[in-house]
Structure formats: C-alpha cells, structure tokens
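Handout for the seminar on molecular recognition.
Each group receives one record of this type.
Step one: identify the two inputs.
Step two: read the structure output and locate the region that could contact calcium ion.
Step three: write two sentences on what you found, then compare them with the reference statements printed after the record.
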Amino acid sequence: MSTELQRKWWKEEVIYQIYPRSFMDSNGDGIGDLRGIISKLDHLHELGVDIIWLSPIYDSPNDDNGYDIRNYREIHQEFGTMSDFEELLEEVHARGMKLIMDLVVNHSSDEHEWFVEAKKSKDNKYRDYYHWKKGVDGGPPNNWPSFFGGSAWEYDEASDEYYLHLFTKKQPDLNWENPKVREEIKGLLKFWLDKGIDGFRMDVIPLISKRLNFENHTLGSFNEVVEKVYSNGPKVHDYLNEIYEDVLSKYDIMTVGEGPGINKNVGLKYVGHDRGELNMIFHLDHMFLGHGPKGKFDPIPYDWCDIKKIFRDWHEAMGESGWLSIFLDNHDFPRLVSRFGNDNQYRRESAKLLAMLVLTQKGTACLYQGSEIGMSNVVFDSISEYRDVETHNFHKEFIANGVSEADFLSEVHAHGRDNARTPFQWDESENAGFSSGKTWINVNPNYKEINLAVDKTAKDSIFKFYKNLLSFRKENLCLVYGQWVEHMLENKNIYAYDRIDENTHFRIVLNHSNEVQDLSLSVDGYELIMNNIEDSSGDQLSPWEARLYKKSNS
Ligand code: ISL
Ligand code: CA
C-alpha cells in the first residue's frame, strides 16, 4: 500500500509551538525561560503533543524577539544557559517527545560579528556575507518595502552603500550566493543536530535566494511583492537541496519551512517526496487572508468559503506527492479563537471546533501555546503597552499618513502579533502564574476566567477536549493518512469533509456560525464518536457545534 510506504513519524506526530518569552518564567525576572519550560513539560506530555517547536532561544539583541540572531551557537542569557538547554532536551526525550529549533538564516542580527565585520570596510572578508548596493538618485537602490514598514534598504554612511533588510534594519539579509555563508550555515545546522535535536522550523526559507537584478517592483499589494519578488528566488531549490544533501539527510529529523510567498503552484517543489528539500511547509495563504494592499493593518473582508477553498486547493496540490503542516495560529497572528472562532459567547465551543479542524485535516497538525485553553486576543488601551516592533513601526507610519490613534489601535486589537505573545495563563494567581515579577508584556486581564487550572476543572474543559482528540488521533491513522474528501463546498456556515481508508470512514461536520444550522448531510450508518456540546440533537447543529462520525467500511 502506497501510504504504508510513506509512513513517517513526522506525519503522525503533533507539533506544539512554544514562544519561550511568554511560556513560563522560572526566576521572577518577568521573562519566560528554559527552566520554566522544563517545569511545564508534564503539561505538554499530559496534553499528548509529540514535537515541541521552540521559537528562537539564541543570543539576540531582541529587536524582533529573537528572530534577529547575534550568535547562533549561544543561548540567550535571558533564557538560560547551554546546560539548561541540554537538560531541557534530555527531559523532552525522557518523556518520549521531540524538540525542534527555529532556524533563522535568511538574515542575522546587525550585531552578529559577521555584520559588525562586514560594516567595517568594503574589502572586509565578511562584506559579501550580506547584500550591499549603491543608491540611486540620492535614495535607496530600489523601491522594495520591508515587511515591517519603510524601505528594505538602510544607508551606511561610511561606505556610501545600502544593505538589504527585508525585515527590520537590525535584520540584514544574508547573501546565500556566497558559498562561505552556506558553509557557515551547514556548520551551525550540524552543531545543533549533533546535540541531538529532532529538526528545524525554517524561518522565511523561500526568501533566501534573491533576484539579483534588484529591479523596482510595479505591484499593487505587499503580498504580491512577497510572492513574486522576495519569495521563490532562482536558486532557492539549489540551496535547500544542498543543505539537505550535505547535512540534513544524514540525520533522522524533520524539517518544516515557513513559507511566505509559496503558493499552491510551487508548493511541491519544496516538499515533493522525491525533491530532497523539506519535509513539509507552513503555507500562509489562509493566514494572509484579509490582509489588504498595505498588509495586516489595512484589512479587507473574507469569509469561510475563502478559507475552505485554500485548504481544498492545497490538498489537491499536494496529492500523494507532498505533505503540509496544518495550523491556524502562531506567534505572528491573532489568537485562533478570536480570529476564526467566537471569543465571546461561544469561546469554548469554537475553540474546540477549531481544534477538531486542525487535528482532522490531512497534514501534520501544529498547535500554538495557549490554544489548548482557548486563550483569546488582548485589548491594551495604549500603544505603549505593545512590545512588537512591527506594531510600533506601522503605528508611526499609519499615524504619519493621517490614520487616527483610535483607528490604528483597533486594527492592532484585531491583528497585532502581541495578541499571541501575552504570557501563558496557568492559574488565577498573580500574573496568571507565569511569573512572580513584572512581566515583559502585560498579562491578558482575562486570566482569572481563562487559565489552565480553571479550565481543567470545568465540565466543558477545552484542555480535555484537545487531550481526547489527540489521543484519538494517535489510535486512528486514518486521520493521518486517510484520503480527504470535502462536501458542501459552497456552504458558508458548515465545513464538512471525510477521511477515508480501507477500514474506516470518518465524517467531520463543523458548524462555524453563531446560528443553528441544518445538518444537511447524511450520516446514516455512522456513529457519533465525539462532539463539543452536551445536548447534541440529530438533524440540527447548534452554534459552533463540531461532530466527528465514524463508520466501519467492513
Ligand atoms: O506576521 C507577519 C508580518 O505581518 C508575517 O508576514 C511574518 O513576518 C512572516 O510570516 C515572517 O515571519 C517570520 O520571520 C520574521 C519574524 O518576525 C516572524 O516572527 C517569523 O515568524 C522575521 O524573522
Ligand atoms: Ca526568567
């Protein structure tokens, strides 16, 4: 059977992302750390996740919370020491779980010694580790915008040249054309793999190969610029293949690439089983839905039919030849229950429905910290309470363009990255049990109602729902490998699909609306295995009701 041949542990296991700054603080400095994570591993084990993805924990000046790395081989001192890391890895493995690291090699920090050297002079041996260009007509080399506002070029007075930074000016882009850069990167991959880690999540990996003519773009929206100008550059597959052949293929690990700009037409080039590149990608199509010409703070409307179509198109594009990671939230986006669910009246129901969605699609599910208790977006009253560099940069830009403070704040409430970065809410005690000191970002004031301790004792616990679903998925490989068939494609209120293999037939029906809906799909011969509300009644779906049915094929 072809699916048997393709069985892989990284398809069957579930990923859980930790944002270390906000997970658990062990020493009262208000910042989450490695010993904090160690102290909470039993929570993750009990939940039933398998692979922990750690957002960056390397030495960093923290311009972009660690996505700006100063030293790839050292642990950020706020997070602990290398021996804390080794202990964490051991403790993870002792529980039968795995650990993957975030690999951020499209850019380094401007405080990395390579860049410090490169800046010294045009003939410095590290100069070519980055992209330097002469300006044009007293301005930057071209009109490329940065992800975080303003130009993607920063002027260096000493050499009268500009360097490229697709993110903040403290994140200069590395020049992968230079073989020495690629050797450095292979060296650091080996460094971490030899410590025994189980793989990498690769940050903005389709951006590593630049279009070296550096032509002006003439496109209308930022997303289009990402897709056509920054992503999928001419040598990206050569580079990925090279690190795979030279390093990654020598270890039993998994890789998942974060894929801004990877669309369904090029997805298989990254993850095709025969390609020797990545095991899977996070495409961002559904996450960028609603981003207008100027990005997330310039929103446009969308609906569930758009979301469903994206999932459907990607399923078709992958077929039996490639694999995806499925997710609805991470540290860059709002809380899933606030964005795709109803974080008010139906917070519990919708949090569970979204859990069922993520854990029954075809692909490796990836959960984000706090979703297992239905954590929701935060509403801070003042911009000064926000910490994210993206929010602050766009704040300046939007206000300068005449947008009011109140209007911008309401966009931040809906779309800002700090929504996902407030501390994990463990219990009702001060600072939600996250820290005994002043926290680096304020705790969401709703922590007395929403926290793990309260949730665990609730009759309709979200945590328990996740736990049951995770263990059910483990026992039912059909939910991993089974064929995926969708129903009622144009229905705006119900998402319905089947997962089918030789032995089993699952039918999943999700009413993602605030109203009662007719089931409008036959479930004759099926048994209801799991649902998210107490009084489920036959032909009618309650608001945000999610059902998982099963029928034996024999
Ligand atoms: O959230 C976004 C900006 O609005 C995304 O476009 C995001 O910037 C993009 O997906 C890349 O994200 C990754 O690389 C960034 C880092 O800031 C993000 O946290 C990371 O996930 C630069 O390293
Ligand atoms: Ca700490």
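Reference statements: The domain at 113-164 is CATH 3.90.400.10 (Oligo-1,6-glucosidase; domain 2). The chain has a mean pLDDT of 97.
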